[in-house]
């Protein structure tokens, strides 16, 4: 304790006894809280309540389902994926189909009738003319006509062709791509079954018209995702010593007889995009014999694949004249039935695809071919090459 000028004692802060109140300065007051306006409080509570109500609703922002009825067997719209349910579809119109009655929205149908009325909007995807995989094994009735031999392919009334409708979809990218066509299916039950089961779905399968149960094998192949073709027995050099089989088209036959033999092959099954030659070195080099066949293929909306085995083939020129989608094989991969030789041919196809953008190889459903191609297909994807159906490399003269 010290004394000031007036000799009064002065108590220092450190010398003040602990716990005693300080009486020499006024007590500190707590600051007053500003009152929140009543209206603001109500607004905040309303927002919080609304948010809690939305949060407690199951899937609050979900748009109600509108179901569309789809006729899977009609094949009217392809490439449009619609989830079907067992419940009754929600009607999309409030007026009769003929447009009479009270005003209301027009009908929008995914599976329109053959001759839709004027107020019906038909939905089509121009970039996907192919069929949905769910119905790929079912023939499109608009692409068939009945004959004494069986169902023949025709162009649909709206211009659709089997060459596009039955084509397997692919990515459409610009990278290197390879199409491989394996023929001879249907001749051996075990061989056909093994080829369909082992080969990737991107591999195109070709059926021999002399085979058995082709309708059943076609459905199996299409259900597994394969694009298919029909092989056409054509006269080779040294015929009949070398014989492609029953109902071969020949140079010496009358055009009408060759057309009938063509019809026989075409009626053996359905759902194929086109035909490819089986042998035919002599026939494909004869304009008088070959031109009527190519014109018939064009009229029926089919494509043509030349296996490339004959340098004298007129197929490319005749296909252009007849509006037939066309491709030519670069290599026959299994002329030697040896795994090493087949792999070497497949390596050549890869080189061609990288240089030109695409390549086409053909082969037969021998056990060694099926096993080797299956093994190669798994590896080639890792090297940045896409395996595509043969329709993906077809040139279509009439459609650019």
Could you provide a short overview of the structure?
The chain has 400 residues and is of the alpha/beta class.
Please explain how this structure is put together.
It contains 9 helices and 15 strands. Strands 7, 8, 9, 10, 11, 12, 13, 14 and 15 form a 9-stranded parallel sheet that branches. Strands 1-2 form a two-stranded antiparallel ribbon. A hairpin with a 5-residue loop joins strand 1 and strand 2. The N and C termini lie far apart (112 Å). It has helices spanning 38-56, 162-165, 189-198, 214-223, 255-266, 287-299, 315-321, 339-356, 367-380, and strands at 2-3, 9-10, 107-109, 120-122, 144-146, 151-153, 177-185, 204-207, 228-234, 274-279, 303-306, 326-328, 331-332, 358-364, 386-387. The model is unreliable at 4-8 and 60-128 (pLDDT under 50). Helix 3 (189-198) runs parallel beside helix 9 (367-380), helix 6 (287-299) packs across helix 7 (315-321) and helix 8 packs across helix 9 (367-380). By secondary structure, it is an alpha/beta fold. Helix content is 27%, strand content 15%. The protein folds into 2 domains: 85-123, no CATH class; 141-399, Alpha-Beta Barrel (TIM Barrel).
